[in-house]
Amino acid sequence: MSSESSLFSHRWLPALLLAPLMLLIVLFFYVPVFQAFYWSFFLEQPFGGGSEFVGLQNFQRVLSDPEFWGATGRTVVFMLTASSLAVVVPLMLAIAADRKIGMSYPARNILVWPKGIAGASIGVVFAFIFNPFVGLMAPLNSLFPGLWNPGIDGTDAFITLVSAHVWSGIPFNFVILLAGLRSIPPTMYQAAAMDGAGPWRRIFDVQLPLIMPQLFLTFVLEFTESITSVFALIDTITGGGPGGSTTLLVYKIYVDGFRGFDLSGASTQTAILMVFVLLLAACQFFFIGRRINYER
Amino acid sequence: MKISTLATTVALLGCTSAAQATNIEFWYGNTGNVEVAIKAQCDAFNASQSEHKVNCVGQGSYEVSMQKAIAAYRAKNHPVLIQFFDAGTLDLMLSGAVEPVQDLMPEVKWDSYIAGARAYYETSKGKLFAQPYNSSTLLFYTNKTELEKAGVTETPRSWEGIIEAARKLKAAGHACPFVTDGDTWRILEQFSARHGLPIATKHNGYDGLDAEYVINSTFAAKHLANLVEWRKEGLVRLAADTKAGNYTAAFNAGECAMMEQSSGSYAAAAKAFDGKYELTVNMAPMYKDYTRHNTFVGGASIYVMKGHKQPEIEAAKAFLDFLRKPEQQMSFTAATGYVPVTTDVLDVIAKSDEANSPKYATAKVGVESMNQPATADTRGIRLGFYVQFREVFMEETQKAFAGQQTMQVALDNTKKRGDQLLRRFEQTYKGKQLP
């Protein structure tokens, strides 16, 4: 027995303490996932009047549907742009807040606050901020009419979505990265400075390599999170439009399943998305994760 | 001690509720002033008798209501009465989850429903599946004050007339002559119906599940292409082009001068215009070369769901009877602008001294619009996964409005994707017959 497990005197106690959480995970994650995989091999009537086994037909249909690939493509673009920015922006803020510049103490505090705001609320606020008539871009719009309108132009809508996502990702990533930076012994910078390294050099050669574990963690979480957590933002800001330009896979699944009552199609896409996310996380750990040095 | 008190209370509660009226639930999807009117009807029903009690639960929207009903039905926890919208008709008819109202209540004079309202919800043998509730149809709203300011003295009735008026408005510096949200129901379905154009083969699916969409080859395609051109010219605006961001709000605020919208919006528009602008409501516009046919009944109807005990069914019947009463239909019409669709109610309104009162304005025009000569293609829409088709149509046409593709390409794509939906629906309900 290792030292951790000897914390509990009774062998069933740990299991008992875990049980409520496990129950919730099984009930709200494993059961629905199993159901989705099961339905993806059937044509299921919405009201449960009957279902027909169709083998891989649903997968064939989905994989040959240009709409599915369109949504997948947008998901990948979003994942790359939004999650990269959602790490890089907090990284810059964290590096700035780590230095003893003016206001860095209050900034460390204030930048964490948005964590308490729900995705849907952020969506409502950003829809207002980027409103073409009353929002931030309104003055530009009055100079160049039609320059910015997320309700008509798909690219504008996508930019709005990415901005909202990056903003909502700041607090968590900021905390993780700042904690990483704070744990670097100051003697390291002092030694680097003594050797003549400038501030940029110190960032790239000392700070970044030493916070690799934190950077890796935020990237992994962001990449997988950005695929699913964007739902609340899409639903409140764009509704998937205009012209499907912000219909990412997770939103398409919702629309097909819950607005169009196509349970089989939605289940099939859920199964595919699920496998994709797992593969993505596995790749990250396999190719990048192993190269990271966790020892200091 | 505490536990025993609790047990006694529970037992007491159990006894009282057993002795009380039969409680049933009714789910609806409307919000705003329509929800207020629905709640008022529920309260009135509960106050009018003590045998039954209906608990009316708002679900926020038609889609959410249907989605919850599906989940609830699968969990055998569904309400007795539920309001569903027009687009879900076929999904419900084949679901096996609802009892046709005409089977349940053969004694009711269902003939009193006007043909335009019946056709949408009845089987091929003429049996009504659901009781029409908040019925609406598409009407043409104008801001007469703004039109007159631009020198348009007569309210236009045709598309040609609307465009002429829109050009005058634009010349007078009006930023938003005509506004639409490009919604499928408004710009495709109701347009096709009143121009006598089919939406799909097999008479919009009434004659079989193997129908195919034809929207890319009828005159509707030309009209939709016109809308794109008119938008470029600055005559037609989309919801996203308006400051209000919502086309009804843009019209109600006076930002836009004309719109096509459900009769259900009348009460809100009249209230917003009060004292500021003059409102006119007419039948939706036609192209001059076409003869007018009926518009579809829109809005929603009430279905009785299967799997409930007799006392609950009785309560449901009593509530449906209550809703059919002329005075109930009239007060609902007056409060919302939805249209009464039974002849007895229309007679009562016509004979009353309020026949020309603005609160019944939509009833007159709406019923006139739904009573125009019908063809086999203007009965309604009986196409599977139709809610999803509406999404597809919106998505493709939005791309056309944004200039990413022509309207013809958008409609060709819509047809292709729509047909795939129909084939999958056909396969999902393999072996089932249209009732």
From TrEMBL, chain A:
GO cellular component annotations of the record: plasma membrane
Assembly and binders: The complex is composed of two ATP-binding proteins (UgpC), two transmembrane proteins (UgpA and UgpE) and a solute-binding protein (UgpB).
GO biological process terms held by the UniProt record: transmembrane transport
Name under which the protein is recorded: sn-glycerol-3-phosphate transport system permease protein UgpA
Database matches in InterPro entries: MetI-like, MetI-like_sf, UgpAE/MalFG_permease
Record PANTHER family: BLL4140 PROTEIN (PTHR43227), SN-GLYCEROL-3-PHOSPHATE TRANSPORT SYSTEM PERMEASE PROTEIN UGPA (PTHR43227:SF9)
Main function: Part of the ABC transporter complex UgpBAEC involved in sn-glycerol-3-phosphate (G3P) import. Probably responsible for the translocation of the substrate across the membrane.
Subcellular location: Cell inner membrane; Cell membrane
Membrane topology term: Multi-pass membrane protein
Residue ranges of every copy of the ABC transmembrane type-1 domain listed in the record: 72-282
Record field: transmembrane: 12-33, 76-96, 117-138, 158-181, 271-289
CDD domains: TM_PBP2 (cd06261)
Alphabetized UniProt keyword annotations: Cell inner membrane, Cell membrane, Membrane, Transmembrane, Transmembrane helix, Transport
Family statement: Belongs to the binding-protein-dependent transport system permease family.
UniProtKB/TrEMBL annotation, chain B:
Pfam families (alphabetical): SBP_bac_8 (PF13416)
Keywords: Periplasm, Signal, Transport
Matches recorded under InterPro entries: Bact_solute-bd_prot1, SBP
CC annotations in GO: periplasmic space
Subcellular location(s) of the protein: Periplasm
SUPFAM superfamilies: Periplasmic binding protein-like II
TM region positions: none
Signal sequence annotation: 1-21
Main location: periplasm
Family membership: Belongs to the bacterial solute-binding protein 1 family.
Quaternary structure (record): The complex is composed of two ATP-binding proteins (UgpC), two transmembrane proteins (UgpA and UgpE) and a solute-binding protein (UgpB).
Protein name as annotated: sn-glycerol-3-phosphate-binding periplasmic protein UgpB
Species, as recorded: Endobacterium cereale
